[in-house]
Amino acid sequence: MGKLSDFDNELDDNHATFNPDSGIKVLDRSLLILRTATAQPMNLSEICSSTGLPRATAHRLLTALHVHRLLERDKDGRWRAGPGLSELSPASSDRIIQAGMTVMRSLMEKTNESVQIYRLTGNVRTCIASIEPASGLQNTVPVGARMSLLRGSAARVLMAWAPEELVQSIIPDAAFTEDDLAEIRTTGVAESIGERDPSLASVSTPIRANQGVVAALSISGPVERLRPSPQQLYGNLIREAAKRINQSLQ
């Protein structure tokens, strides 16, 4: 409990109070840092200047918020919103599924291919929704299936907006590069041909809520039907579909 009194004494008189004040200073200061860093990416010195918090206090709280994935650091060392914020947002898996089912069914009917939604769950991706055509050769992915982030268009999309530490941990073994992820962030769509399974191809795009990427929408099927490029075939279609889901999540 000594830590609490340490925090109490670390703010100087000019910044001793700020609103809202819950009476729990560690919580108030953590939220102050969270609001500051999510409003605009900042380095440690800028956060200290903006909040009035001593450097040691700010660093300790930033580290704790990073552990809980509420904040992350970019390549320039600036703190910004982390993926944990999206996970705590109203865009829960159930809400994403509810927003996506009609759109997924429409995609399946237009393409006669399988359609899935994946979420990043730790160091894997998990299928949270899946629709298959009634007949024909399919790419059946059961809801709850957990897959590697090393391969596949959905993995590429999720990794394009994943925490930098996770990206760096998987890039050495991945079927894609950091340049590939940068391109996906520009185009908003990713494709894969025979990466996860030699007979399968797919195209994916991000689903967004609260200004963050919360899931990936995918169309997948046999390589023969999606050649020469799943992105050329269905890139525009899947982007428009994702926009409709995004609007439902706002």
What does this 3D model show about the protein?
There is one protein chain. Helix 2 (about 25-40) crosses helix 4 and helix 7 (about 155-160) crosses helix 9 (about 180-185). The chain has a 6-stranded antiparallel β-sheet, with helices on both faces. Helix content is about 50%, strand content about 20%. The model is unreliable at about 1-20 (pLDDT under 50). With about 250 residues, the protein is of the alpha+beta class. The protein has helices spanning about 1-10, 25-40, 45-50, 55-65, 85-90, 95-110, 155-160, 165-170, 180-185, 225, 230-250; strands spanning about 70-75, 80, 115-120, 125-130, 145, 190-195, 200-210, 210-220. The protein folds into 2 domains: about 25-85, Winged helix-like DNA-binding domain superfamily/Winged helix DNA-binding domain (Arc Repressor Mutant, subunit A, Orthogonal Bundle), CATH 1.10.10.10; about 90-250, Beta-Lactamase (2-Layer Sandwich). This is Transcriptional regulator, IclR family. GO terms for molecular function: DNA binding; DNA-binding transcription factor activity. InterPro entries: GAF-like_dom_sf (IPR029016), HTH_MetabolicPath_Reg (IPR050707), Tscrpt_reg_IclR_C (IPR014757), Tscrpt_reg_IclR_N (IPR005471), WH-like_DNA-bd_sf (IPR036388), WH_DNA-bd_sf (IPR036390).
